Amino acid sequence: MIGTEGYSPPEQYRGEASPAGDIYALGATIHHLLTNRDPRLEPPFSFHERIIREINPKVSPEFEVVINTALDYDPLKRYSSTENFKKALMAAVKTTGILVKPLTAEIVTLTGDEVTEIWSFECEDEIRGTPVVYKGMVYVGCYDNNIYALDAKTGKFIWKYATEGGITGKPAAEDDIIYIGSEDHRLYAISALGGKLVWTYHTEGQIRSSPSSSHGH
Predict the structure, then answer these.
(1) Are residue 205 and residue 125 in the same domain, yes or no?
(2) Most buried of the four, 41, 96, 157, 188, by CB within 10 Å?
């Protein structure tokens, strides 16, 4: 199983990874925040048993509907994209009148004399995901199929591991293991220090989202 138990959608238990899974996980996070009920401590896929407005009456019916849609057991009945999920959330808070005007901050423009590049590293293709810093190292996936390990202070190349597909997500790091998904349908666990493969898990679809790791899972 990929992801955190309680937050992961049913299809991830079958090895299927898709954007609909990310929408489910975000819905699970919002449900947790609204109800203060940790899904990791509840039976899997039981959000419908913890009705949001019964636990927290301050939540509007419109907002509850949006979260329940994101948590639908059937991925085809969830929002088709994170953008549509966002629009539904915005519409719900506008309807209830609780949308707070975002704070604006002064934009500070720095000159070249005030910003100094410490180091840079050139990969063989686009970097589409976010790097992760872990124990003095930078780990970053690249669309050239590789995940790179660099010294965080100097940018020195330490190792790279080649998958068979492009990498678009952010690596996860825990217990000296780096986890990364690839468009070759595999989730990889790689030794943080030596760049050696620890294990792989094959899924039925391309992995374009970012894995997460918590408490050994």
Answers:
(1) yes
(2) 188
pLDDT tens digit sequence for 79-124: 999 999 999 999 988 776 554 455 566 666 666 667 788 999 999 9
Q: Compute the distance between CA of residue 190 and CA of residue 86 in angstroms, rounded to an integer.
A: 34
Q: Give the model's pLDDT for residue 122.
A: 94
Q: What is the mean pLDDT of residues 20-41?
A: 92
Whole-angstrom distance, CA of residue 126 vs CA of residue 163: 15
- Tell me which DSSP letter residue 32 carries: H
Q: 3-class DSSP state for residue 192?
A: coil
Closest by Cα among 77, 60, 70 to 30: 70
d(C-alpha 32, C-alpha 29), whole Å: 5
With tokens 């943080």, the residue in question is 192
Question: How much is the pTM?
Answer: 0.52
Range of the domain at 87: 10-96
Same domain, 199 and 152: yes
